[in-house]
UniProtKB/TrEMBL annotation:
SUPFAM superfamilies: NAD(P)-binding Rossmann-fold domains. This is Probable oxidoreductase. Keywords: Oxidoreductase. PANTHER family: NAD(P)-BINDING ROSSMANN-FOLD SUPERFAMILY PROTEIN (PTHR24320:SF272), RETINOL DEHYDROGENASE (PTHR24320). One of its GO terms (molecular function) is oxidoreductase activity. Belongs to the short-chain dehydrogenases/reductases (SDR) family. InterPro entries: KR_dom, NAD(P)-bd_dom_sf, SDR_fam. It comes from Erythrobacter longus.
Length: 323
């Protein structure tokens, strides 16, 4: 088994892997980590569905991928994760067009944006990063179940972040209605929710052969940071510098191919077959660590009682009820 780590690329993870016959849906697949994930998996024979809100950007991504992988099997699916109506429509369309989804990669997200609301009145980061993916996963579940019986199928990868170290999810005030809004506090809560959702999926669907993985891609400079102010960038750089100093590294930034590696690994690694509900970083399953700022998963992000409570709240807020 290859020894993968922080500088491993998506292509290196997939060396010798054949994804022919697999259908992979990637949210946020029209740029950054999502596009690189789509390219790498298409290059190994997967049928990749790029799911994003902007059709023109998706077509640009398709053209860019086909320039490198001429025989890539690609489809697009329009979905705005900040709109439950759009999510429901995308789910209905996907169920009509596709026979199965072997691997769902919930890659899209927003980071540290100003206080904004989704179309349904949810705080934007919790509403997009967690609730949007929660609802979309529900609408895609019949397709995921159809793929679960196949070897290597039945995997859901949720893009989280070491940002979950910022703090636990606040299930009493998810929309910052009674507390002062902080872009980074909101981001951290939403990334914790991604891990709690992963735990919830594993608890409910492992018996059906569907396993879920939360992933920290590493620090990467992509358009995810498009909302960052000068103050936000200072906060981020301070955290990255602290982590670099603790680890003895010159920098904590990764390239996009390196950043996509861990989600590709979680989606395909043979050693993860039959297990899930874990948080992965640098192409390995991370240990529970409530102290280090340089790695590991906080125990509050894997807590079953909190996960169950978030699940119930999410079903209530989105009206997307899992059978």
């Amino acid at each position: 088994m290859a020894a993968f780590g922080e500088n491993t690329t998506a292509d290196e993870v997939l060396e010798g892997v054949d994804l022919s016959g697999k259908t992979v849906l990637v949210t946020g697949g029209s740029s950054g980590l999502g596009q690189e994930t789509a390219r790498a998996m298409a290059a190994k024979g997967a049928h990749v569905v790029i799911c994003a809100r902007n059709p023109a950007q998706m077509e640009e991504a398709v053209a860019a991928i086909k320039a490198e992988v001429p025989d890539a099997k690609l489809d697009t699916l329009t979905c705005d994760l900040a709109s439950l109506e759009s999510i429901k429509a995308a789910g209905a369309e996907a169920n009509k067009r596709f026979e199965k989804i072997d691997i769902l990669i919930n890659n899209a997200g927003v980071m540290a944006c100003p206080k904004m609301d989704t179309a349904d009145g949810f705080e934007m980061q919790f509403g997009t990063n967690h609730l949007g993916h929660f609802a979309l996963t529900r609408h895609l579940m019949p397709l995921i179940e159809a793929g679960a019986g196949k070897a290597g199928g039945g995997r859901i990868v949720n893009l989280s972040s070491r940002g979950h170290h910022i703090g636990p999810a606040d299930l009493d005030d998810p929309n910052f209605e009674t507390s002062e809004y902080s872009p980074w506090e909101s981001y951290g809560r939403s990334k914790t929710a991604n891990i709690l959702f992963t735990r919830g999926l594993e608890d409910r669907f492992a018996a059906k052969g569907i396993h879920a993985y939360a992933v920290h891609p590493g620090g990467i400079q992509t358009n995810l940071g498009r909302h960052l102010t000068e103050e936000d960038n200072k906060f981020l750089m301070k955290r990255m510098k602290q982590q670099a100093e603790e680890s003895g590294k010159a920098t904590m930034f990764k390239t996009i191919p390196e950043g996509a590696a861990t989600q590709v690994w979680a989606a395909t690694a043979a050693e993860l077959e039959g297990q899930g509900g874990v948080y992965c970083e640098d192409c390995h399953v991370a240990e529970v660590d409530d102290v280090s700022s340089n790695g590991g998963v906080r125990s509050y992000a894997l807590d079953k009682a909190t996960s169950d409570r978030l699940w119930a709240l999410s079903e209530k807020m989105t009206h997307a009820v899992f059978a």
